[in-house]
Structures are given as structure tokens and as C-alpha cells.
Write a structure and sequence with these properties.
Layout: H1 2-11, H2 13-40, H3 49-69, H4 73-95, H5 107-130, H6 139-166, E1 177-179, E2 188-194, E3 197-199, E4 202-205, E5 210-215, E6 224-225, E7 245-249, E8 255-260, E9 268-273
Helix pairs in contact: 1-2, 2-3, 2-4, 2-5, 3-4, 4-5, 4-6, 5-6
The chain binds copper (II) ion.
The site of copper (II) ion (CU) has 5 residues, from loops.
């Protein structure tokens, strides 16, 4: 990469511009991909935020495609502005909450935030320094935008870092299947809820294991046996308020127990007693 980039900087600035444009479009598509994945795995159920996620995915793909096809300053500026506003939405939801939803820090969110800054730098850099002269705006505006570019990138990066540092975050494993081994009731199993998803959603425990459920969201949730008439046993944490923890004992009879959140029925998982 570096060896092909160096000679271009001095001799063919246009090819550096083309690389920036392609890089920016790629980063934008990556942010759209992360949002699509989050949308499909739970965010689609969150009011307003779910719709915004879908809009983000569509806009990111359309703008990235346009930026790839059209070597125009306006298109690159629109795509750069979009990347920055997506980042703004993330920072706001992390810091203050947005439309009644307060985001919890996750790896996917942090990665998306970093990629959005990257897309802004690449597409904004292209628009301000490499776009064909014929597609540039008035010279004075251009000079002003160039001067504001680096400070703007610094502010965006700082806002992301502060928002991330202020968010509690959770280090629980992702939605994978987890098995804990332990001797009977001595062991306990930790389940956390964040952004309307159980982590882990599927797990196996010994009979009677203490299940500790922590709600990291800003709204109440429950962890409730799905089939209340399951003859093997039932369980229900009742409402767990934002930031609170509740415990219950896993059924003593081996079997598979589907569970859900009785407030948000789309939140589901399976507890296996073995
Ligand atoms: Cu819930």
C-alpha cells in the first residue's frame, strides 16, 4: 500500500484522490453493514431507533455507490456529512440518549464510530483537496472548509472518545452459546441485558444454578420462562429496573427452557439444564 501511495502523492494527486474516494465509500458500506447486522439482531424492535437504523443502512449504501461512480465534490461532501451525522447520532445516544433510547457501549458500536470518522476523513479529504476543480464551489468557501476540516475531525474524534469513556459498557460475551460447569447450586451464571438483547441468549447450567440477571438498559426488562405451563419448571425475575440485578434458581429438572422478556416479547433465549 505505502509503496504505491508515495509516488502518487507527488506525481499524480488525482490517483490519491481516487483512492480516498474508494476508501471512503468502502468505510461507509462497512458502517451500513454493521447497522444492518444490528438492525436484524434486535434494533429493529426499538421504536424510532429501529427505523433510523434502516434509513442509515439504505443511505450509506446509496451514498457509497454514488461516491464510487461519480467523482464529484458534492456527492463526496454529502457522503462525508452523512458519515458525520451517523457518528453524531451514536455519540448522542451514548451520551444523553436519543428518542428515549440510551445506547450501551458495545464493540460493534465503537467500531462503527471509528469507521464513520474514517469515512468522513476520506470523503471530506477527497471533496476538499482532490475533487476535480470544475466541481468545486466558490474559492472563499473552499478555503474556509479546508481550514475547518482538521479541527472538525479532531472534535468528532474527541466526542467519540468522551462518549465511549462515559458509557458504562458491558464486557459480557456476545450472543453465543455458553456452558458453565459447576457442582450443583454452588455455581452461578451471569446473564446481562443490553440494547434489548440477552447475553448470552443460550446457555447451559447445572440443576438449581443461581442465575444472576443484570439489566444494563435504561428501561425495565424481565427474564421469564416462555411456556408458563412447562411441567418441568418455570421461572420469572419479574421487572428488573434499569441498572438493577435480579436472581433466580434454574429449574432442578433437566430440560430445555425457552425464555423471553415479558415486556418486549421479541427478546428471547434458551436455558438448558443438564
Ligand atoms: Cu424487555
Amino acid at each position: 500500500m505505502a509503496s504505491t501511495m508515495k509516488p502518487s502523492t507527488s506525481n499524480r494527486p488525482r490517483s490519491v484522490g481516487t483512492m480516498l474516494r474508494i476508501l471512503g465509500a468502502g468505510l461507509l458500506i462497512a458502517t451500513g453493514g454493521i447497522h444492518l447486522d444490528l438492525y436484524l439482531t434486535g434494533y429493529r424492535h426499538i421504536p424510532t431507533i429501529g427505523t433510523l437504523f434502516l434509513l442509515q443502512v439504505i443511505s450509506a449504501f446509496v451514498l457509497a455507490l454514488l461516491a464510487l461512480v461519480l467523482a464529484r465534490r458534492t456527492v463526496a461532501l454529502a457522503a462525508a456529512g452523512f458519515a458525520l451525522s451517523t457518528l453524531g447520532g451514536y455519540v448522542l445516544s451514548l451520551w444523553f440518549g436519543l428518542f428515549g433510547f440510551k445506547e450501551i457501549r458495545t464493540t460493534a458500536g465503537v467500531v462503527a464510530g471509528i469507521l464513520e470518522i474514517g469515512a468522513f476523513v476520506a470523503l471530506g479529504g477527497y471533496a476538499l483537496f482532490f475533487a476535480p476543480a470544475s466541481t468545486r464551489g466558490p474559492a472563499q468557501l473552499q478555503a474556509l472548509a479546508r481550514r475547518a476540516f482538521v479541527p472538525l475531525v479532531a472534535v468528532a474524534g474527541l466526542a467519540l472518545v468522551i462518549a465511549i469513556a462515559n458509557s458504562p459498557g458491558v464486557s459480557a460475551p456476545g450472543g453465543s452459546t455458553t456452558t458453565i460447569s459447576g457442582s450443583g447450586t454452588a455455581a452461578s451464571m451471569k446473564v446481562s441485558i443490553r440494547n434489548f438483547v440477552f447475553y448470552p441468549a443460550n446457555f447451559t447450567v447445572a440443576p438449581g444454578t443461581t442465575i444472576v440477571v443484570t439489566n444494563n438498559d435504561t428501561v425495565a426488562h424481565t427474564l421469564t420462562a416462555l411456556n408458563a405451563s412447562n411441567p418441568l419448571g418455570k421461572f420469572d425475575t419479574g421487572n428488573i429496573a434499569a441498572g438493577k440485578t435480579a436472581t433466580f434458581a434454574a429449574p432442578s429438572k433437566p430440560g430445555s427452557y425457552a425464555f423471553y422478556c415479558s415486556i418486549h416479547s421479541f427478546m428471547v433465549g434458551t436455558l438448558v439444564v443438564k
